[in-house]
Write a structure and sequence with these properties.
The complex is a heterotrimer of chains A (about 525), B (about 260) and C (about 160). Chain B is mainly alpha-helical and about 260 residues long. Chain B is about 65% helix and about 0% strand. In chain B, α3 packs across α4, α4 packs antiparallel against α8 and α6 packs across α7. Chain C is elongated and about 70 Å long. Classes of the chains: A mainly alpha (about 525), B mainly alpha (about 260), C mainly alpha (about 160).
């Protein structure tokens, strides 16, 4: 049974989506249980995968049973690099599904089966991307997740949301097309689409590996992935797209989509081209680290200037992507930068989930869209506030949350690689985050607005703002938020174990790369 | 308007320059010994394996179909999922839901012949053509093993037959034949057929989509013919989904989601 | 000049064509004001990539990648000569002894990959068109500068 895990991970949400499509039209209340059951099945499968990988090494799965010669069938591979990411995706998906019970929006209540169907297909795409071992298969799954995300974002009824969705469609398609073009260049030069096979062709034929076409293919693939992860300067689509879409869509897309693209970049760097080739000329890695520095600073500064909560969080995502890309390209000897980047993928997924869930609860229950609307809310919604505070502290980098440890590893990598500009940018960004979030705490907890007095008006205004939705049980959102904040803290406490797993994976994979 | 133009020209020139820089290393056009077509030293060529050995493995003469539906069947399944997701996204965006709220007028007989002489020629010709188109579509689906064709191509032609009804009379006439509840169900059934074949292989102790083990169920004389017949089965599943979603996309886009008056 | 033509351009002319097409599409995507023209640019962009892949699999003097197991071509040739053939013998000859010569058949793999890519392109175009319809319903215009004016000048969203 455990050797069929890769197929189960992808098939369970797919069957769930089809059942919702068939049965959900008649009975909207059947959608959520079906979705929850299929996501729980994938959660158990991914936890089973962790134990299998720790005991007996990577799981290789060949679709259609075509194993030899390598490359005629499609290869799925779960190794210690992506197994924790699988669990992370499953947990985030389950939590957001619980959050989204009947929160699709009162105007969109009849679109419930469509929402859940698209949601499950998005999960299929994300799982498939993580375990893909074939370059073209990765493109198809990226398109599955992109199309479903276009649908999830454009589903809302806001005016600016439709224009934002249109720009997202254009940019996303251009990104995926660049990736496809890069894979085409690789196929023309090597004759294979399987990632492992391409790597062994590079090892065996150094003249192919040093040709111009292969270098250009790497640049094309990289540009395509950078568009997908909203790396500076290609981030223009992200703030508008994620702030004007329904809360439930934002909660599933923001923590996962950009982070999975970072994982794809790292996977392509390690498994297809090899770190030796990628870091061969320090000029290029320096250039990327400088771009990352600009991304971090620009993201943090722009976040400071925002008045709406979700837009501010979106610019923080841009800064976080800068952390990860910079960390991955640090090229230090012991690969601490890469370790920090991989750990930060998990940490950032948890932190962003926390913050977006809290923002979603604030928006739905209290109609609080702008930061100033948060006046005095911490007293009215203590549990939600606690979750938000945990997420904010993780963003700033306070121990024992995971944000502290990921910054620790990234800074260590930056020091060892002598990229002082990266270290300084990280520290500045933590400072800016602190300013940002403490300003929010001040407004929300003490109810102090700069131009008005202290909280006499607090109670009247708060009464006006809270809307009662009797049919939405409030505990669903709050409980997901609390579980998410628990994960933020747990990831921090157990960071040693997680980092150990990542180091084992990097050693296994890069030993091959060092040979080349 | 000046600023986007300058930015566009710069972006285009830089991107074009990067792409053309890499072109000089490429093998020539039409070279049968290029790495894509023949082997690179150190590995076995995938495409040569397909050309020389795929008939022995699958007994399907059309090499493109055998690669599409058997060796890379997982990709094809996700291609079908992409179409389904696009249909779902369009329903979600434009707001069409199953089970139309207003009941349709049950009309008998062709709706165009009502003293409207300008539509008699178009309407009658289309009515005569539709069965021919549908038979041809089924031929393209079924004959995909022996000639260019297959599930996607046949599915689109089948959807075109419904779209012709919608164009020549009106959208209601086409929706009477394939209503919105039914087309969503048809799409889901198509993917369930595809995934069902794969899961059946898993139940029989092999990997997903390994059709060879279906031999005892399909009662063929050899795993190769089992592959050939299963390929036909999954192509039929693909055709269902493609037909349903292509028609659904047309119906929703032409009526802006309301499914009341088409073009 | 002739040297440039012969050495650089001629063996790679298909790649030059696809790059020019792609750049036309990219330019339309960025520079055009009308949303539908942007979509057409996106479509041209994707089609150029499809052309690139299909041109990868071309071999000189090669035929389509469909086998002829009933030996109809040889049957026709043999009949013209007056000899007799059997369908069975020809069909079995593909197993074991005589497999087709790879140099005479075009590479089937790029065709397979591009079937998928074309379908993905059509699906994306469908979704983008439906979003464009929603935009038209909300703003009453499909020109990007007019929409941005309405958004900036307008009051509160949703």
């Amino acid at each position: 049974m455990t050797d069929q895990i890769p197929a189960i991970l992808v098939l369970a949400p797919l069957f769930g989506a089809m059942i919702i499509g068939l049965a959900g039209q008649k009975d909207h209340r059947a959608c959520f249980p079906v979705a929850l059951v299929s996501l729980l099945v994938t959660l158990f499968a991914s936890i089973g995968a962790i134990f299998t990988v720790i005991e007996s090494g990577p799981i290789d799965y060949f679709m259609g049973g075509w194993e030899k010669p390598l490359g005629i069938g499609i290869h799925l591979r779960i190794d210690s690099l992506n197994v924790i990411l699988l669990v992370a995706i499953a947990i985030v998906a389950v939590l957001v599904a619980i959050f989204s019970i009947r929160r699709i929006g009162d105007k969109n209540a009849e679109k419930t089966p469509h929402f859940y169907s698209l949601y499950l297909l998005l999960c299929v795409g994300l799982f498939g991307i993580t375990i893909a071992g074939d370059a073209f298969n990765l493109f198809v799954l990226v398109e599955v997740s992109s199309l479903t995300s276009y649908g999830l974002i454009a589903m809302g009824s806001s005016r600016r949301g439709t224009l934002a969705a249109f720009n997202y469609v254009l940019m996303g398609t251009v990104g995926a097309s660049f990736y496809l073009l890069g894979v085409g260049y690789l196929y023309l030069m090597t004759g294979s689409l399987n990632m492992q096979e391409i790597h062994s062709i590079f090892v065996a034929n150094p003249d192919i590996a040093s040709s111009k076409a292969v270098a250009i293919s790497f640049i094309l693939i990289l540009i395509g992935i950078w568009i997908k992860m909203a790396f500076f300067p290609l981030y223009g689509w992200l703030p508008n797209a994620y702030s004007y879409c329904p809360s439930s869509s934002a909660c599933i897309l923001a923590p996962l989509m950009t982070k999975i693209s970072v994982y794809v970049m790292i996977r392509v760097m390690i498994s297809v081209f090899g770190l030796g080739w990628v870091f061969a000329s320090p000029g290029y890695s320096n250039l990327v680290v400088w771009l990352a520095v600009i991304a971090i600073l620009a993201g943090s500064m722009l976040a400071l200037a925002q008045r709406e909560i979700k837009k501010m969080l979106c610019y923080l995502i841009v800064a976080e992507v800068g952390y990860m890309v910079g960390g991955a390209w640090l090229a230090d000897e012991q690969l601490w930068g890469l370790t920090g980047s991989l750990y930060h993928i998990l940490a950032d997924a948890a932190m962003t989930l926390c913050l977006f869930l809290a923002a979603g609860i604030f928006a739905k229950r209290f109609n609080a869209i702008e930061i100033d609307d948060l006046e005095g809310l911490f007293k009215k919604a203590p549990w939600t506030a606690a979750g938000f505070v945990v997420g904010a502290l993780a963003m700033i980098g306070v121990p024992p949350t995971c944000g502290f440890f990921s910054k620790f590893y990234l800074i260590r990598g930056g020091i060892e690689a002598n990229h002082w500009e990266y270290v300084i940018a990280l520290l500045i960004s933590s400072l800016v985050n602190a300013v940002l979030f403490f300003r929010i705490f001040e407004i929300a907890f003490f109810g102090v607005k700069p131009s008005e007095g202290h909280g006499h008006h607090e109670e009247e205004e708060a009464e006006l703002k809270e809307e009662h939705h009797p049919e939405i049980p409030n505990w669903t959102g709050t409980s997901s938020l609390l579980v998410a904040s628990a994960f933020v803290i747990l990831l921090g406490i157990f960071n040693g174990k997680v980092v150990e797993l990542i180091r084992v994976a990097l050693e296994d994979l890069t030993v091959v790369a060092q040979r080349f | 308007m000046r600023l986007p133009n300058m930015f566009a020209i710069i972006a285009v020139v830089i991107t074009g320059g990067i792409l053309l820089y890499g072109v000089s290393d490429f093998p020539s056009f039409g070279d049968p010994k290029s790495p894509a077509n023949a082997a690179v030293p150190g590995s076995e060529s995938v495409s040569q394996y397909f050309i020389t050995k795929s008939y022995k493995d699958t007994k399907v003469p059309n090499l493109v179909t055998s690669v599409l539906a058997d060796y890379r069947g997982y990709d094809t399944m996700f291609e079908t999922v992409v179409i389904f997701a696009a249909g779902m996204a369009i329903f979600a965006i434009l707001g069409s839901v199953g089970g139309g709220s207003q009941p349709r007028v049950q009309e008998e007989g062709p709706s165009f012949v009502d003293g409207d002489h300008s539509r008699i020629i178009v309407g009658t010709t289309c009515r005569l053509l539709v069965p021919v188109i549908q038979v041809f579509a089924l031929y393209v689906i079924g004959h995909g093993h022996y000639s260019p064709g297959g599930g996607f191509q046949g599915g689109v032609i089948l959807a075109a037959s419904f779209i012709i009804i919608a164009l020549s009379s009106d959208l209601d006439a086409a929706l009477r034949r394939l209503s919105e509840v039914n087309y969503l169900r048809l799409a889901c059934v198509g993917i369930l057929i595809y995934a069902g074949f794969g899961v059946l292989c898993q139940v029989l102790e092999s990997n997903f989509l390994d059709y060879g083990v279906l031999q005892p169920i399909l009662l063929t004389d050899g795993p190769e013919m089992a592959r050939s017949h299963s390929m036909l089965g999954v192509e039929i599943g693909v055709a269902f989904t493609v037909t349903a979603i292509m028609f659904a996309i047309y119906a929703n886009l032409s009526s802006r989601g309301t499914l009341r008056d088409g073009l | 000049m002739a040297e440039f033509f012969e050495q650089t351009l001629q063996p790679h002319f298909n790649f030059w064509i696809y790059v020019i097409l792609m750049m036309i599409g990219l330019w339309a995507l960025i520079a055009k004001n009308n949303l539908i023209k942007k979509l057409i640019g996106m479509s041209i962009f994707q089609t150029a990539i499809i052309l690139f892949y299909v041109s990868l699999g071309v071999k000189e003097d090669a035929t389509i990648p469909i086998l002829d197991p009933y030996g109809q071509a040889e049957h026709a040739a043999a009949e013209a000569e007056g000899a007799e053939t059997e369908g069975e013998k020809k069909r079995d000859s593909y197993i074991g002894k005589k497999s087709p010569d790879p140099d005479t058949m075009a590479n089937p793999l790029p065709h397979v990959l591009m079937l998928t890519a074309i379908v993905v392109g059509v699906a994306t175009l469908g979704v983008a068109l439906s979003i464009a319809q929603m935009i038209f319903k909300e703003f009453g215009s499909l020109e990007e500068d007019e929409i941005l004016e309405i958004v900036k000048g307008g009051s509160v969203d949703d």
